[in-house]
Amino acid sequence: FGCGDNHKALPDGGMPGGDGSGSAAVCSLDVDSAALASGTWDTRFTIPGFTGPDGHSPTVYDFARDIDGSIVAAGQFHYLGADRVEPLLRYKNGQWAPARTTWELQPPDSGFSAIAIDATGRLALATYDDYGERSGEIWIDDGTGLRVIGEFDGLVRRLAWYDDQLWVAGWDQITTAATPIQGLAVWDGTTWAPPPGGPIDSFAFTLVKDGDDLLV
Fold first, then answer.
1. Around 195, how many Cα atoms within 13 Å sit in the side-chain half-sphere?
2. Nearest to 25 by CA among 12, 36, 42
3. Beta-carbon count within 10 A of 181 CB
């Protein structure tokens, strides 16, 4: 029983009952440890599927298909049903499960805004930030674990592996390039550069491969 702000405990430790006797209940913070050990999660406290960081609505920002045919979802969420998870989940054989068992880098509370997986299984992620000044990092795992390959100000909307390079599009500016690159940048495995033909003068919001072409 919890004492709410509108209740006032009586001198005998009770709460005002319907007859004003004060014997209806007793306020206590004590919890029986045996009751906890044998308890189960009450599903009425959550909803099926993804749920967000405590107090926030869950959001899936992007999907990618892995080389085993499974679907990986990235976004801002912290729970799968009643289970605490990191914001990267895999859909395989009709069920969702954590996409990774090992995290070399700590996922941010805001999760990830974009994901891309190439034909060899290389994973790229863009961190998301909705608490501060909108900045983040580009992560990849090429088989040796997650590492940071770039930093940006703003928001990355899409990632795409194309012609063995990673393309980054969004309302952002890659700040780790020799000269900051706005809106659309390409990482060749070593350095960041503007796209072929020169930098854009605005922002890019989506990327999709069409045969041998990449549409922006």
1. 20
2. 12
3. 23
- Polymer length of the chain: 216
Task: Supply the pTM of this predicted model.
Answer: 0.76
Helices (H) and strands (E) in the chain, counts: 1, 16
Residue 72 has a CB neighbour count (10 Å cut-off) of 21
φ/ψ of residue 108, rounded to 5: -70, 155
| Neighbour-count burial of 32, counting CB atoms closer than 10 A to its CB (0-12 exposed, 13-18 middle, 19+ buried) | exposed
The string of pLDDT tens digits covering residues 45-81 is 555 566 655 556 788 999 999 999 999 999 998 888 7
Q: Which helix (H) or strand (E) holds 161?
A: strand 147-162
Per DSSP, what are the bridge partners of residue 71? 65, 91
